[in-house]
Amino acid sequence: MYLLSLTDNIVTSARSTFGYVAHSLGGLKPWLLYQPKDFKAPDPPCIRSTSIDPCHLTPPSHGCDADWGTYSGKVVPFVRECEDREHDGIKLFDEL
Question: EC number(s) (predicted)?
Fold first, then answer.
């Protein structure tokens, strides 16, 4: 992961924890490949991430009093769903 983080550009696939960590260590905003749906490539096939933060695949529960499944973006500013995952994972963003 460390060696991969030293690259000038990086493209990571959806669900790639290895890629998420590598681009974060290097301070890079990666290109994210979307996952194919029904054996068809999405249009566009990839996007530039807006954040260097990795996608956290298991969102936090916010403590004992909060209901499980509470959308973190409503509780904490600068937190949104990952660009390459549908309703599965959160990450930090620089802007609201």
Answer: 2.4.1.-
The type of residue at 56 is H
Number of Cα atoms under 13 Å in the Cβ half of residue 47: 13
Q: What percent of the chain has pLDDT over 70?
A: 78
pLDDT tens, position by position, 23-39: 888 888 888 888 888 99
CA distance 42 to 7: 26
Query: Which residue in the block uniquely carries the two structure tokens 């991430």?
Result: 49
C-alpha–C-alpha distance, residues 30 and 92, integer Å? 14
91 membership: H or E segment, kind and range: strand 90-92
